[in-house]
């Protein structure tokens, strides 16, 4: 329920309580791993580590295929990665053109 509402802190608290109540419950252990993966994906997103965030969101989307939040976050991270690569290419080209600026007449 908390996952669907994007209330990850509440989800973590509920999972921790359930874990203390029944530490050998397989479902609780699975949700703990999912929560850790969500937290890592969110951290990678904030740090703009797009490739790592994408990897985490892809694993999550396989685990939770109907989760719209995960699908949206995966898409946004993919777009951000493409954009960051395009910006880097542009900056490299711009830097190159600035370097050869004085020599353009000689080259032409």
What gyration radius follows from the Cα positions, in whole Å? 21 Å
- Secondary structural class: mainly alpha
Number of structurally distinct domains: 1
Termini separation: 66 Å
Secondary-structure element series: HHHHH
**Spans of 5+ residues with little confidence (pLDDT < 50)?**
none
GO cellular component, one term: cytoplasm
Structure write-up:
It contains five helices and no strands. The N and C termini lie far apart (66 Å). It is an all-alpha fold. The chain is 80% helix and 0% strand. The longest helix has 33 residues, at 68-100.
Secondary structure layout:
Layout (H helix, E strand, L loop, with lengths): L7 H14 L4 H21 L3 H14 L4 H33 L3 H4 L1
GO cellular component, one term: cytoplasm
Condensed summary:
The protein is mostly helical and 108 residues long. Helix content is 80%, strand content 0%.
What structural keywords apply?
108 residues; TTL1-4; TPR-like_helical_dom_sf
């Amino acid at each position: 329920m908390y996952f669907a509402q994007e209330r990850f802190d509440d989800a973590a608290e509920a999972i921790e309580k359930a874990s203390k109540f029944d530490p050998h419950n397989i479902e609780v252990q699975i949700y703990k791993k999912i929560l850790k993966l969500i937290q890592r994906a969110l951290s990678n997103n904030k740090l703009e580590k797009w490739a790592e965030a994408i990897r985490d969101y892809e694993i999550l989307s396989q685990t939770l295929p109907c989760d719209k939040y995960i699908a949206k976050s995966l898409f946004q991270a993919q777009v951000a990665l493409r954009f960051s690569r395009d910006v880097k290419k542009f900056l490299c080209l711009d830097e190159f053109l600035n370097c050869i600026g004085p020599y353009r007449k000689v080259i032409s």
